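stage 2 :: seqdesign
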């Protein structure tokens, strides 16, 4: 087992794929054939898949484990739990585009309820990433993010939360794909990939315009 397992697919600028709990980077397999012009880096969180565990799993710990393994300026794509990890990476490191799909920005009461539900050990599933997400206070952290992000909201149970999260982020562009329903990546990979690549390219064009 490696310190951090990252599977790479394609050629181009690195696009780091951050999966939802409790999945590994293999979750994004349906998306990979649809991505062009980027190299997808599918991450296994510490303690998941081929990655060694960390002593105290948390969203911040996951970000700290990932940052040394990705190049400066890499683009980030997070889904569900992965959106929280992407924000933490963006707070700590130099990154390119940050794309967040369906953000679980639960309030304190809901997070406590979910943490209690998932606290019992499960021999069939690693709940560490779930518990890390439920311990993460997006309402406190998101307003402090000093970087532009792109938020995609699909027709899911996180639709309203994602809209609320976009409003918390100081410099967020919200795109609603209400024709995309669950399971989003299995059924709508091409639609999501097209939108993600547009947003990544827009970021690159904006960065190019502001260079001295």
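stage 2 :: out
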């Amino acid at each position: 087992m490696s310190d951090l397992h990252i599977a790479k697919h394609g050629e181009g600028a690195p696009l780091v794929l951050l999966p939802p709990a409790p999945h590994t980077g293999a979750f994004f397999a349906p998306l990979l054939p649809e991505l062009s012009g980027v190299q997808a880096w599918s991450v296994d969180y510490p303690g998941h898949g081929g990655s060694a565990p960390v002593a105290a799993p948390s969203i911040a710990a996951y970000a700290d484990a990932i940052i040394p393994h990705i190049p400066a300026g890499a683009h980030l794509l997070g889904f569900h739990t992965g959106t929280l990890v992407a924000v933490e990476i963006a707070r700590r490191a130099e990154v390119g585009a940050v794309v967040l799909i369906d953000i679980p920005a639960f309030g304190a009461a809901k997070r406590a309820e979910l943490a209690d539900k998932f606290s019992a050990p499960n021999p069939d599933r690693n709940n560490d990433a779930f518990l890390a997400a439920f311990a993460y206070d997006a309402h406190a952290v998101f307003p402090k993010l000093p970087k532009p992000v792109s938020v995609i909201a699909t027709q899911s149970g996180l639709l309203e939360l994602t809209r609320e999260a976009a409003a918390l982020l100081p410099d967020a562009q919200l795109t609603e794909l209400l024709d995309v329903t669950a399971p989003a990546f299995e059924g709508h990979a091409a639609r999501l990939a097209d939108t993600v690549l547009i947003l990544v390219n827009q970021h690159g064009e904006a960065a190019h315009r502001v260079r001295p």
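stage 3 :: structure notes
- The first helix runs from residue 59 to 66.
- Residues 2 and 138 are 30 Å apart (CA to CA).
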